[in-house]
Amino acid sequence: MDCKKPLLVQSTFPLFVFAFFSAVLVYGQTETKSQDSLQKLIEEFKKEEIEKEGRLNRKLNSIWSSKEKMSDGSEVALNDIGDDGALLYYTTYTTPSNEVSRANELYSDGLLRLGMDGKGMKVGVWDAGVARTSHQEFDSRAQNGDGSQEMSEHATLVTGAIISSGVKPEAKGVAYYAQADTHNWTRDKIEVAEAAGNGLMLSNHSYGIKSDRVPDWYFGAYIRVSQDWDRVMYNAPYYLMVTAAGNAQKSRDNEAPNFGKTADGFDLLLGFTTSKNGLTVAAANADIGRNGELKDATVTGYSSLGPVDDGRIKPDLAGNGAAVLSTSSESNSSYDTSVGTSMAAPGVTGSLLLLQQYYKELFGDAMKASTLKGLVLHTADDVGTEGPDYKMGWGVINAKRAAEVLKDNEFKSYIEETKITQGETLTYEFTASGEEPLVASISWTDPEGEYINRGELNNPVSALTNDLDIRIYKDGEEY
């Protein structure tokens, strides 16, 4: 089989030689076709939204109100209805982020001296309402994206964790000069699809389905909501959805997990957290050294664990799960401290913004979502059992190492965005230093899965549409 011309990379440096590949399977799909498909998807979502509102109004009764605030401060609202008729309630996941992610090493005073700050970058935030856009930490950089009048404490905390300027230094956001469009979660799929069509590359979703109000088969299942979000990301290949894993580890809400025992807290991921193309974030307690090295990390005692029913690794990555000081909606100068995967996710989102900013500075364009996701998984700090696991995925995000891979591209590392067709093989040759392991990754945006679960407990049918293999050979031996 004919292969692309191999690229020989030689390195004599005693560092990791990162061979990182990002393959996006589009089967001849053009950017114009993606835009047309995305517009058709938006129209389909709008029609479904009208039908959904009618079904919910007919179904809603006095068992639960349509909107609640729980005793722990979390916000709950009726948002959807499952294919089995179950009412799906969304809830916020809230129970220094830049240091855990090592994003601070990309600042002008960081170890890498890169001067990244989020300026010129935009993020979308969907939440239980909109953030207080007039807060002193936001200047004019936070905008109400959908005109919602529902101001949310949780949305303000999340938005601040990403873009706060540092008027109060301890509350400084990860991408502190970035812009944020903040939205109510009621029409999230429609609004995200429209924003992605207009160039939005990252959005943060620190909420999800409330785990004590669904049957056990929902946990880990690839359902219609999972499929819909995969459709959005496939048709908008530069857009990546970042989601919080949830805080249900000790809830015992799933009495029939597909892995471990109920008391272990496995198999608790719900809804869009099981999508293939999104980035699901767990919460970790981490000890970071003076030079940005990870000394130790453990998953928090509340962070929801995977896997998903078809065995895919979820969550994908872990962020800071410690108490995070951020902006509060009480006033334009108020602050509050919060913990949870709700605050771990925006720390990761802000780091991704900085990496996109750096990539643009280096190469003049943006990374595709599959490249960005693959990059941070490839460079994450693996902790605990060797290799990815169902607690923290590929490990704790390390934006410093990810930036170094970008900086060293075609010198000590190699990144390629390419297309591959059915049955095709791409071959590359590398010469490693011999002093450190050679590490290779492949990542792609997958079309939506054809099978969606409608009520089967722990059904292992694969959600994957395309299945790519990566193999490494040395002296004829396959690894």
* Rg estimate, integer Å: 21 Å
User: Helix tally?
Assistant: 8
| Proportion in helices | 10-25%
Give helix and strand order, one letter per element, not per position. EHEEEHEEHEHEEHEEEEEEHHHEEEE
Q: Could you say which structural class the secondary elements and strand pairing correspond to?
A: alpha/beta
* Spatial separation of the terminal alpha carbons: 21 Å
Mean pLDDT over all positions: 88
- What are the segments in which pLDDT stays under 50 over at least 5 consecutive residues? 1-18, 21-30
The count of β-strands is 19
Q: What spatial form do the alpha-carbon principal axes imply?
A: globular
Major sheet description: 8 strands, mixed
Strand content: 15-25%
Question: Could you characterize what this model shows?
Answer:
A hairpin with a 5-residue loop joins β3 and β4. The chain has 8 helices and 19 strands. It starts with 16 loop residues before the first strand and ends with a strand. Helix content is 23%, strand content 20%. It is globular, with a radius of gyration of 21 Å. With 479 residues, it is α/β, with parallel strands linked by helices.
List the topology elements.
Blueprint lengths: L16 E7 L7 H29 L7 E3 L5 E7 L5 E6 L4 H5 L20 E6 L14 E3 L8 H11 L15 E6 L3 H10 L4 E4 L1 E3 L14 H12 L4 E5 L34 E10 L5 E6 L17 E4 L3 E4 L7 E4 L2 H23 L5 H10 L20 H9 L5 E6 L19 E6 L29 E2 L2 E2 L1
Parallel strand pairs: 1-16, 1-17, 5-7, 5-8, 6-7, 8-10, 10-11, 11-13
Antiparallel strand pairs: 2-3, 3-4, 4-9, 11-12, 14-15, 18-19
